[in-house]
Amino acid sequence: RKLSRPSQDVTASIPAAGSIPSLQTLSARRQMYERDFPLYKQPVEVGCFSLDSERRFYNDDRQLRYYVEPERGPNFKLSDGYPDRYVKRDDGVKERLDHILKWILANRSKLEMSHAAATRPSTACDLGVDFVTWRGHLTKLLTTPYETREGWMLAVTRLGGTLYVSEVETEAARRDREASSARHQEMMYWGYKFEQYTCAAEPRGRPDAGGVVNTNEAFCTVVRTRLAAHSLLFSGEVDCRDRDPEAPLAPACYLELKTSAEICTPKQRSNFHRFKLLKWWAQSFLPGVPRIVAGFRDDDGVVVSVETFQTSKISQLIKNEHNCWKPTVCMNFCSDFLSFVKSVVREDNPRVVYLFSWEPHRDVSYSVHRDTQYCFLPDWYVSRITH
Ligand code: A3P
Ligand code: MG
Ligand code: MG
Predict the structure, then answer these.
(1) Chain Cα centroid distance, residue 354
(2) Looking at this predicted complex, what is its ipTM?
(3) What is the pLDDT of residues 249-264, one digit of tens each?
(4) For residue 223, how far is the Cα from the chain centroid?
(5) DSSP character at residue 315
């Protein structure tokens, strides 16, 4: 038999008088999160920005595209233009939160005003939000209780009371990215090619399937919302909007575009419901994007059908699957993770990073790093936001 724990461990776990005990780890087991759906306020768009073909930032919607409904029986060959009309973003360049931080600096007065009326007098660098992050990072949190393959690392820094959350690529993810097969590279192109077939640059324009696919270009929405006790400001890429000028205000006019393998067997349908719809739902539910347009394609990348999913109806659609994912588990885990982060990340210092790590079948744990490569708030941001 193994030796019992040394007694020091026991005393060390008793918090000092007056201190708030903060947990060292957080469970990601789905059974822990099956309670009522938490409060999630309707996301409000507070701004947007664009990134051009060279990844330059603009504080406007110049990259927003307009959805053009495909004709019946469309002739979309998703391999067309690969690789000669393809400019791929360099995913080895880590942009961290930089574009969101640029947006915050450019829209600071607007942001401060939007919460000043409702809260205590604000001090320098008080943005009036608890968390700033990318939508994609939150999507990973939502799907964590159901993820069995890929772990994640999230770096968190507290500055002026706001918690900034920025992903750090895991070693496994970097290896996968660098070892990505030629087939996988081409299949990634298919998703962007589908966007080109279904989007126009102007509300009354036509798609230009003969143009170049450049994945540096992006239009991003910035939304504000609340999850239980946490106010959030996050940004996410939006594929296009309804071309009707009478469509509801953003984000209700936005559409998410997706491609997926055509479904031929009950097993494929079940996998689509259990795995793909979870990711699609989480990504679009967070910023309040109400519709997802899916192009189903064959193994050669030819689109065989196009179908629209209402984000709000996805959870109904999957209810017949045995042991399926539940939106409430996703949202409660995310809410509890954010509470965990608040309790752990106490030091308000741009040079300190609390690194939260998770691997499938494990609990979330963390480590603390001072003045290291993990620091992600740039000096140009820290100096302008604290003055
Ligand atoms: P599909 O969504 O059709 O797969 P998004 O759907 O988020 O707008 O992203 C557009 C495309 O980028 C995707 O098309 C896919 O080709 C590629 N992509 C996005 N995230 C990816 C990821 N994590 N791994 C591989 N490809 C990704
Ligand atoms: Mg997109
Ligand atoms: Mg898309």
Answers:
(1) 20
(2) 0.97
(3) 999 999 999 999 999 9
(4) 12
(5) H
